[in-house]
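Ticket #4471: structure output looks truncated?

Reporter: J.K.
Steps to reproduce: submitted the chain below (436 residues) through the standard prediction queue, then opened the result file.
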Amino acid sequence: MLERYFDLAGRGTNVRTELVAGLTTFLTMAYIVVVNPAILGTTGMPVAAVAAATCLAAAFGCILMGLVANYPLAMAPGMGLNAYFTFTVVKGMGVPWETALGCVFLSGVAFLLLTAVGVRQLIIGALPRWLFSAVGGGVGLFIAFIGLADAGIIVAKPGTMVGLGSLTAPGAAVSLFGIVLIAALQVRRIKGAMLLGILLTAALGWAVGLGHMAPGGHSLADLSATMGKLDIRGALNLKGGIGMSLLEIVFVFLFVDLFDNVGTLVAVTRNAGLMAKDGSVPRLNRILVVDSLAMAAGAIAGTSPVTSYIESASGVTAGGRTGLTAVVVGLLFLVTLFFAPLVQAIPASATAPALILVGAMMLGTLAEVDWNEPAAAIPAFVTVVMIPLSFSIANGLAFGITTYALLKLVNGEARRSDWLVYVLAALFVARFIYIA
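Returned output as attached by the reporter:
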């Protein structure tokens, strides 16, 4: 049955290889079960509930991706998207987390409709791949900056805005240990290095009194604290109506999720030999539909937007070629669901190193930018630098796309086929005027 459904022989694989690939992918991305609750928990969301919701949403997305699209793509709440949800929407805009979850659900529905009419595919074709890569790099710096602040390594200083914190403080010292430990494990190619490093760093944190392990005080009922708590009506009434706030939130969720997916799709399908001869991704619509449904389902469970993970490449390297790999990852997340609430005992000093190093690895996408070509280098730089320094992915997107459009105009490269780029730039300019 598995052979027929997933076409294992046709893709040069077998059940055993797919099982190993699924386990490999799971181990490389299981850190999200710890890191996502640590980020969303700062909004006031119950950490145990977010951990359980993270597992449930990841399981749903992975299994659906495997069964519907038949790709070895694993899904989970996205890094960067969770930072935008937390630090821009909830903390920056003052939107209650329940309402923010409503925005995520509406984004999923909107994405499904946009996919059905071909708009998401149109956006993919309108923007250059290097701009997608720049957004990925900027989000990486943003996440790393958050991790450094959580660790106490970087602190606010009146004279210089930011500065070096006390590295001998317990939290900072434990985080530095975690950075070195995880980096060493990754250099040694240890599978599950991120998750293992978090747990070992947490053990050190508990030893010096930064957190307390309290086994037994959890159950799956913890999920009820976020399950179904999304406030769709509140999302629709942001600022008294469907105004700029809601549109901006949905817009950023759309672009960051879209860029995440495209970057991951290109990398994974190329490595797996699944890309078509013309460079396109077969069954792209199915992948985008799954992405939309997973985002909506994640909002219902109680977590930030779900997206595909570049860690899927580790499973492809292990031989994964079909959706069976993704299904295995989903089943492993379901098993993890029974232990997920325990993550509330893990101190921030243990999760901060993961944020820093995940951010560092995301910078690898910047290699796809032609830094010798000003028309690409300047918009890419503006995008990368504005995301962390303005503490907003939305601002980075706005500056990057607007700069790209302006440079095409002044260079005499404006084409009728680029109309969508100029529409997006005009919308961003209108957004800046509205904010001012």
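Triage note (M.O.): checked the attachment and the full token line is present. The mean pLDDT is 87.
Status: closed, working as intended.
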